[in-house]
Amino acid sequence: MLLIISACSTSNANSSVSDEQKEESEKTVQYTTITGQQVEIPADPKRVVYIGQTIGDFLAMDIPIVGNNLPQDTPSYYEGRFEGIVDVGNPGDLETILSLKPDLIINGYYKAEADHNEALSKIATTIPFNPALPYTERVKEIGNIFGKQKEAAQMIAKFKAQSKEMFDKFQLADGETATIFYQLGKTLYVMGNRSLGAIIYGENGFAVPPAVQKNILDKKGVSFVNISEEVLSEFAGDHLFVVVQDDGESKTEADRLLQRPIWATLPAVQKGNVHVVPSEWNTDNLLALEQLFKQMPQWMDQQ
User: Which of 5, 218, 229, 231 shows the greatest Cβ crowding within 10 Å of its Cβ?
Assistant: First the structure.
């Protein structure tokens, strides 16, 4: 496969690219990847393939994405935003990506398969990217890759201001905690400070319950843990955000959980501080944030 890709890319890569575009694509800059490697990348990439789950960041920053492993169930904040973007599958079909003639590939799954990452690099310059980082760190990295440091700083400042304005209205008490439960099928998870957690536990946000801190945040590489109902009280904070996957089994299990006697014993439940959240909002990508700061006050009003 590597030999085929190498041969095809040599003969076909620039067949439909104008001289002006070719000249632009040949300009490169030095870039230090998140793994510390020094590489040359296009100074002004025109055709980018991004393999990862936070495509909203790139779209919000007007990055020319031509291919992505597009989500199968399109959240509302992505409506109309995928036009012209080819679904390359997961973790990225090599022939499909090759046909797109990318000048830069950003691989959010670089840790998973070394052989696949090497194959991608035969198509175009491929750099690693970590989509699990909080949005502030992801956006800074995108700014570094595409020479959009100023735009990245402005974007981060904008959403930090919106977050502060929202949490100021909530008037949280000092040390008021929250827990994010995620119902996926029959399994119940407690989430850390990734995705929705990056907002819930972000600056000006809720405090982290001790059990979440100890079992998730303090452990390197851990983003969530699955738990049994018997230990609900250990993880439950002053507010409970219950994220429910959009399928029949998950919804049934979530309904069962909310009716369980042990659930009714939790102080947050007794105070009406339970907020049920559709799974599409378990994210902190930039396109979602535009609406997320409007959604959260509605969840907080749920009784």
Answer: 5
Quick: pLDDT tens for 70-102: 998 889 899 999 999 999 999 899 999 999 999
Percent of the chain, pLDDT > 70?
91
In CATH terms, 165-300 corresponds, of 3.40.50.720, 3.40.50.800, 1.20.1440.230, 3.40.50.1980, to 3.40.50.1980
Q: Class of the 17-148 domain?
A: alpha beta
Got the DSSP string for 107-163?
A: ETTTTT-HHHHHHHHHHS-EEE--TTS-HHHHHHHHHHHHT-HHHHHHHHHHHHHHH
| Residue 56 burial (C-beta neighbours within 10 Å; 0-12, 13-18, 19+) | buried
Phi, then psi, of 278 in degrees rounded to 5: -65, 145
Q: Which amino acid is at 63?
A: I
Does 111 or 22 have the greater pLDDT score?
111
| Alpha carbons 170 and 165: distance in angstroms, whole number | 9
H helix and E strand count, the chain: 14, 12
Q: Would you list the domain boundaries of the chain?
A: 17-148, 165-300
- What is the spatial distance between Cα 168 and Cα 61, in angstroms, rounded to a whole number? 27
Map tokens 């040949």 to a residue.
26
Within this chain, domains 17-148 and 165-300 share the same CATH topology: yes
**Tell me, what's the pLDDT at 81?**
94
